[in-house]
Amino acid sequence: MPPPDQQVEVDFPPSPTEEPEVPAAPVLKHDKYYLDDGDFYALAEDKLFRVHVHFLRKHSGLIREELQSPCPSGILQDDAFILKEVTAEDFALLLWVFYDKSLERQASGEEWLRILLAAEKLRMPHVQNLALDRLKDLKLVSADPILIISIQQRYRHSLSRAWALDAFVQVCERQSRLTVEEGERIGILASILIGHAREEELVVRSQHQQTVYNCFGNGGHEKRETRDIVQRIIIQDEPPIAAPSCEVLDDLNPFECNVEGANIIVYAREHKFNVHRYFLEQHSPFISQMLRPVTPGQDQQWDIVEGEGAHNTITLNVDSLHFSWVLWLLYNENLLIKPSIEQWSAIHAVAKQYKMDMIGAFATKQMGNTLDLVERVLSIQRFGLQDQWAKDTYDLFYQREEPISAEEGERLGFKTWAELNARREQFLKDMWEECQCQQVVKPMQVEVVAKVKKGKKKGSRPVQKERCCTCCP
């Protein structure tokens, strides 16, 4: 060996079998679901999530098992729980189920399908039930028909075959038969039904070959016959689907809300609730202001009690049962809920008291037609509703025959009354530019009345007659 002063380092080129290391993609915090008070870290692709462990431990069997292990991941940012089978986009969609501020959880069929599949992988049965409940009323346009049929068969106690009708039709009318792999995905029952339908379609096609050939250009005749065959063989004799079970609120005892990772204690009439600060600040600017430190000389108009940390405990002047129902909307485990009208009314009142506009809007729409028109308008204005339900409510005011009464005007207030009255007058002007009970120049809405035609025979059929206003014969 040469002396140290003569030793040199030589960089040998990598051997042909060694591949150069590819630098890992930088990890980025998710722009929406990296929460300041989150206590669980999850990594999906290159996105780092920081959310509340309460929801994931309660809902995900996979994550619950990880958290019960001797050395669980997800507690520290440098040791995040790695989601191997769920993309960052799909995990964000799944988290939206818990964090949707509107509480309405309105999404497309394709989005609910992705939520369902992600919930399957993370073993979230309550999220799966919610997704199935929403999917049953939605149509999937661009999804793979084999995937749709396989999902319907997998959840056949929740999704009827009629839900997958278009997918069955696509598979039955295509030229190629089911492959072995497709048959394994959809199961033996669906494969047999599809086989029967395809056989009958071939028989019908051979019997009406010329007719089918002539109509094949637009595909209308062939598609109608295939759909009729699928309807008769696959859909018609299906057993009924049971309605999903919804969680019902207790009218006597408050919902016990003691969530894992809570950082705020709320007292309501001496009842204690442990909740996340995040949700209170998200939904109520009033409570958010309460949680801020009081500046010197500022009048304190509420009771803040010293708890486990400064400003970590607040007392609200609200019925504990009713406030627990608001928390139940945020934290209920079942996700499929069915409060009574009286319970929605109490939730609506708490939301109004603490300026919880999203919760108030949600409760207002759930109460629907049980509110009178004035209360509906006041709730729409109070909670800033601007959707179709709000438009329909205003239309009822504009289009009804009787004018706004003095009692309604007092409840509405002068400003709201003046706006409604002006719109009502404009509506009537647009509806009848000239109306003398004989001629309608510009009708916007024509009332249709049924009159029984007098005749010698008994039980004459009613005939439809249009009229422009109530004084027209």
Concise structural overview:
This protein has helices spanning 53-59, 61-67, 88-99, 109-122, 125-135, 145-154, 165-173, 180-186, 188-207, 209-215, 220-235, 277-283, 285-290, 320-331, 341-353, 357-367, 373-383, 388-399, 406-412, 414-431, and strands at 28-34, 40-44, 47-51, 81-83, 264-268, 271-275, 303-304, 313-316, 447-452, 462-467. The protein is α/β, with parallel strands linked by helices. The protein has 5 domains: 25-123, Potassium Channel Kv1.1, Chain A (2-Layer Sandwich); 137-240, no CATH class; 245-293 and 301-370, Potassium Channel Kv1.1, Chain A, CATH 3.30.710.10; 371-431, no CATH class; 439-473, no CATH class.
Describe it for me?
The chain has 473 residues and is of the alpha/beta class. It is built from 20 helices and ten strands. The strands form three sheets. Strands 1-3-2-4 form a four-stranded mixed beta sheet, with helices on one face. The chain has a four-stranded mixed beta sheet with strand order 6-5-8-7. It has a two-stranded antiparallel ribbon with strand order 9-10. Strand 2 and strand 3 form a beta hairpin. Helix 1 packs across helix 2, helix 7 packs across helix 11 and helix 9 crosses helix 11. It is flat, with a radius of gyration of 32 Å.
